[in-house]
Design goal:
Blueprint (H helix, E strand, L loop, with lengths): L1 H24 L2 E9 L8 E9 L2 E7 L10 E4 L4 E4 L1 E6 L8 H5 L5 H17 L2 E6 L6 H10 L7 E4 L21 H15 L3 E5 L18 H13 L3 E6 L2 H9 L4 E4 L5 H10 L2 E3 L10 H7 L3 H24 L2 E2 L10 E2 L2 E2 H11 L4 H7 L2 H7 L16 E4 L13 E6 L2 E5 L4
Parallel strand pairs: 1-4, 1-5, 6-7, 7-8, 9-10, 10-11, 11-12, 12-13
Antiparallel strand pairs: 1-2, 2-3, 5-16, 14-15, 16-17, 17-18
Helix pairs in contact: 3-4, 5-6, 7-8, 8-10, 11-12
Bound molecules: zinc ion.
Length: 429
């Protein structure tokens, strides 16, 4: 039996080698016939050709200017609009909210958690989101998954992760009677531990939140010295720092400490938004969680009454903060705090979030940028992803309308490519 297995493996390996050679011969792909949207707001390229070799875009232009090699594999995008893959900058692949889900997953093992994350990652990519930033996960399943995706062992978007979030004793994300990291030295150590495990961001929790009872949402819980210490430690390793913050007080301190991004910003006032604008601090609004479109989701997962009340109480102010942030021209990168592919109001949480940005005052083009090139800039990865340009990864999606005219075009995603590989294709159907 053993010999038979070895023989079978040899046959399978041999045929895979054959396939690989064949794949190399047709490594060039050409997406033809579609309209490429210009993220700078200039005219789109109609009847475009995008040539892809391996993982990267090697040519892009009109059919008249870019000849298609005979051997290229053709992808007909006639009638479709081509944009960069969407990005979602605030989510938790292993998210567990209070209620039914929490009880169900109470005894989840490390292996089960990582496999659940992998399933979520696959769904996210199929929904057109090709890059995600994880803002607090458990037990480093996220970092294992990131490695597996980059090795081709699992399917999912590009992952930038902060590993486990840094909580302070008594603060958001803490359990009562448990000691966390307090003071600059402990926080520096905790930040370095995440970075050494593979995190490229550090997530700190500097005010209270909706989902836990640790401190008031509007308070500044972490001190200037603590935040400064984390930011300095992270920046020395090339990592960036994201702060969960609902409050103007906490955000003001964090900006002074050199924070890179503020998450949620439920109660931000105009004064602090002006300060964010001045310092170029990023805001990741996650507006979708506090707005009515998400109500059926919370009912479905059975969150308790107290959670819904707490959420409604912040909804109006959160909305006003987002409107003011748009008015002030604060850097905004899209994030949902829900799974990007989560069904929401007839679409996904990611697309609904972008739609909310338009309802709050962005132009459709600004909202599209907040879902593509702006997150790439926030990640410091805009030389590789975030727009359709020669030399960048071929992370491309197709939609059935012009999203710079109507952001709702993102509701119909017809095609998803990441790094030159096709993961979803309804173009020919
Ligand atoms: Zn979150």
């Amino acid at each position: 039996m053993k010999n038979f297995c070895i023989a079978l493996i040899l046959v399978v390996t041999a045929s895979f080698a054959g396939l690989n050679q064949a794949a190399e011969a047709v490594a060039t792909k050409a997406i033809v016939g579609g309209t490429v949207v210009d993220l700078d707001g200039t005219a789109p390229i109609r009847d475009a050709v995008i040539l892809i070799e391996g993982e990267k875009i090697v040519a892009i232009g009109s059919a008249a200017d870019v000849p298609v090699p005979d051997a290229a594999q053709l992808i007909d995008a006639s009638g479709a609009w081509l944009i960069p893959g969407l990005m979602n900058m605030h989510l938790h692949l292993g998210l567990i909210l209070p209620g039914k889900l929490e009880a169900e997953l109470a005894k989840e093992t490390e292996g089960e958690l990582t496999l659940r994350m992998a399933a979520n990652a696959r769904d996210i990519l199929h929904a057109g989101v090709t890059t995600i930033r994880l803002t607090g996960e458990q037990r480093h399943g996220d970092l294992a998954l990131k490695k597996a995706i980059s090795k081709g062992q699992a399917i999912g978007p590009r992952i930038f992760s902060s590993g486990e979030a840094l909580a302070i004793t008594g603060g958001h994300g803490s359990e009562s009677n448990v000691t966390y990291s307090d003071g600059p030295y402990e926080l520096i150590k905790a930040a370095r531990k995440e970075i050494s495990a593979g995190a490229s961001w550090v997530k700190i929790l500097i005010s209270g939140g909706i989902a836990t009872n640790g401190g008031d949402i509007a308070e500044a819980l972490m001190t200037l010295e603590e935040i400064e210490a984390v930011v300095d430690a992270a920046h020395r390793f090339g990592a960036r720092v994201a702060a969960h913050s609902g409050s103007s007080a906490a955000t003001t301190i964090a900006i002074d400490a050199g924070i890179d991004s503020i998450e949620h910003g439920y109660f931000l006032d105009r004064k602090v938004l002006k300060k964010m604008k001045k310092h170029g601090t990023w805001l990741v609004p996650t507006i979708v969680v506090s707005q009515p479109a998400t109500q059926p989701f919370f009912e479905k997962i059975g969150v308790p009454e107290w959670y819904l009340k707490r959420r409604d109480s912040v909804g109006k102010e959160h909305w006003r903060a987002l409107e003011m942030a748009i008015e002030e021209g604060v850097n905004i990168a899209l994030g949902t705090d829900q799974l990007p592919s989560e069904p929401n109001d007839g679409t996904t949480a990611t697309v609904r979030e972008a739609q909310y940005y338009v309802e709050a005052g962005m132009t459709p083009l600004q909202a599209l940028r907040a879902a593509t090139i702006q997150p790439a800039r926030m990640l410091g990865a805009d030389d590789r992803i975030g727009s359709l340009e020669v030399g960048k990864f071929a992370d491309i999606i197709a939609v059935d309308g012009d999203p710079t005219k109507d952001i709702k075009a993102l509701r119909n995603i017809l095609f998803v490519m990441k790094g030159g590989e096709v993961y979803n294709d309804l173009l020919s159907k």
